[in-house]
Amino acid sequence: MNNPKHSIKKISAEQLSALLQTLQTRFEKNRHRHKELEWTNVLAKLNTAGVDQLWSLHEMERTGGEPDVTGYDKKTIEFIFTDCAAESPKGRRSICYDHEALKARKEHPPANSAAAMAAEMGIEMLTEEQYRQIQQLEPFDTKTSSWIITPVAIRSLGGALFCDRRYNTVFVYHNGAESYYAGRAFRGSLRV
Q1: Is residue 20 within 8 Å of 153, Cβ to Cβ?
Q2: Residue 105: its pLDDT value, please?
Q3: Whole-angstrom Cα distance, residue 101 to residue 155?
Q4: How confident is the model at residue 7 (pLDDT cuts 50, 70, 90)?
Q5: Quick one: which of 11, 74, 99, 180 has the most CB atoms within 10 Å?
Q6: Which domain holds residue 90?
Q7: Whether the Cβ atoms of residue 176 and residue 78 lie closer than 8 Å to each other
Q8: What is the pTM of this model?
Q9: What average pLDDT does this structure show over 118-138?
């Protein structure tokens, strides 16, 4: 479901300035997420990024994801921003897994799906491997859960996967793809 208010990928100078300040503050406050990286290099990359990438980062922030740099790909020369909110992003909760699940929901359908929101925002949902990687940085989703990319074999049978962290352990679970809960959203990543 498209949100007309956010379908045009524009970011104002004021929004960009506020976003860059927020990202810098978060970057400096959370050095454990990117020990070998420097903000000046990240900023230089952001200053040459396309408007679509900056808009996507703004959407990650606007929906409560609290994006931060969690890696650098030397081959592609890209910084990897990942949602680092302690709990699943508030602006993305109460959504089912994908558009097919949304269409199948006969009663009380949610407003959107994780896959559709990620596509609209221009970001990628996390895989199980990526989810486990960010959990090595610090504990996430200790009270909430996050949808993750589901293998086709599972999705074709009506299921979808989600993760959380309980008892200092990352768990992967399954649910019907059409299900949705107030404490479940999705985490995404963006390469810049």
Answers
A1: no
A2: 86
A3: 10
A4: low
A5: 180
A6: 1-192
A7: no
A8: 0.92
A9: 98
Nearest to 19 by CA among 65, 70, 54: 54
What confidence tier does 189 reach under pLDDT thresholds 50, 70, 90?
A: very high
Sign of CA dihedral 111, 114, 118, 119: negative
DSSP string, the chain: ---GGGSS----HHHHHHHHHHHHHHHHHTGGGSTT--HHHHHHHHHTS-HHHHHHHHHHHHTT--EEEEEEETTTTEEEEEE--SSS-GGG-S-BSSHHHHHH--SS--S-BHHHHHHHHT-EEPPHHHHHHHHTTS---SSSEEE----HHHHTTTEEEEEEEETTEEEEEEEETT---TTEEE-EEEE-
Q: Identity (one letter) of the amino acid at 109?
A: P
pLDDT at 187 over 80: yes
Contact indicator for 99, 114 with CB cutoff of 8 Å: no
Query: What's the pLDDT at 106?
Result: 84
Number of compact structural domains in the chain: 1
Backbone φ and ψ of 126, nearest 5°: -75, 145
141, two tokens: 């989703």
Average model confidence (pLDDT) for the chain? Answer: 94
Pairing of strands 78-83, 188-191: antiparallel
